[in-house]
From TrEMBL:
One of its GO terms (molecular function) is DNA-binding transcription factor activity. One of its GO terms (biological process) is negative regulation of DNA-templated transcription. Residues 73-254 form the IclR-ED domain. The keyword DNA-binding applies. This is Transcriptional regulator, IclR family. It comes from the Bacteria. Residues 9-72 form the HTH iclR-type domain. Keywords: DNA-binding, Transcription, Transcription regulation. Pfam families: HTH_IclR (PF09339), IclR_C (PF01614). SUPFAM superfamilies: GAF domain-like (SSF55781), Winged helix' DNA-binding domain (SSF46785). Gene3D superfamilies: 3.30.450.40, Winged helix-like DNA-binding domain superfamily/Winged helix DNA-binding domain.
């Protein structure tokens, strides 16, 4: 097979950029004007690539509102990937065991560019509000214990790069700013797990721990979300110990 031409590679990069911009935006999608401004592409090029992606059902176009959003094929690909022999399948039993032992909501998060994405979860006995909402939901890295657990164990240069990119997005979260994220990173590295006690969502607590690959780089996190009212002395530490035991099993399977 012939190597892709430079123009073909550039076109693929631009298409991927537009997909990322739409995926990282709101559920309402984005207009052509918004995508031109955010991508730096000229209008004609952006419009041509968008039309191609629509033709392949990677994007859907709302002609009435003149907005683009992710298409049906993207969700099909996501579902197929989730069934594969990867991270989700390695963590399924751990999520279920943790939920059964504690009755709490458990979740598996993974890094996607500058975001923390919910790959899987088990709902607890008590319905609790979570930052990501459901499987497939995401938050910027730095928001919530599931994302802090991963961010804290990246190298300093990468942490700085991510925080510079995400700082404008922190304003959407309660009392969150870059200096606070740096403090959470230091605390998480010191104790080995991330904790939030009602700071981002009043009345809701969370604890999470990173899952590392064979090189020691965090690829995901496992965590609990629960009511602050349930907290008694030693509970957070107990939940962290349960996470540690399951993550040891997961990392041995990798």
């Amino acid at each position: 097979m012939a190597a892709p031409t430079a123009s073909g590679s550039q076109l693929l990069d631009r298409a991927a950029l537009l997909l990322d911009l739409i995926a990282d935006g709101t559920s309402e999608g984005a207009t052509l004007k918004e995508l031109v401004e955010r991508s730096g592409l000229n209008t004609a090029t952006c419009h041509r690539i968008l039309n191609t992606l629509v033709g392949h059902r990677l994007l859907a176009r709302d002609d009435k509102r003149k907005r683009y959003r992710l298409g049906a094929k993207m969700f099909i690909y996501g579902a197929r990937a989730a069934r594969g022999p990867g991270l989700i399948s390695r963590c399924e039993m751990s999520l279920s065991r943790l939920r059964k032992k504690t009755g709490e909501t458990t979740h598996l998060m993974a890094r996607h560019n500058h975001d923390s994405l919910c790959l899987d979860r088990r709902d607890g006995e008590c319905v609790v509000q979570t930052l990501t909402g459901s499987i497939g939901g995401s938050v910027p890295l730095g928001a919530g214990p599931g994302s802090i657990a991963m961010l804290a164990f990246l190298d300093r240069e990468e942490q700085e790069f991510i925080l510079r990119a995400n700082e404008p997005r922190f304003a959407a979260f309660r009392d969150l700013a870059a200096d606070k994220v740096w403090r959470l990173i230091e605390e998480t590295r010191a104790r080995g797990h991330a904790v939030d006690i009602g700071e981002l969502i009043p009345g809701i607590a969370g604890v999470a721990m990173p899952i590392l690959d064979e090189t020691g780089v965090p690829v995901a996190s496992l965590g609990f979300t629960f009511l602050c009212a349930k907290i008694v002395p030693g509970l957070v530490e107990n939940y962290a110990a349960l996470l540690r035991a399951e993550i040891d099993l997961i990392e041995r399977r990798s």
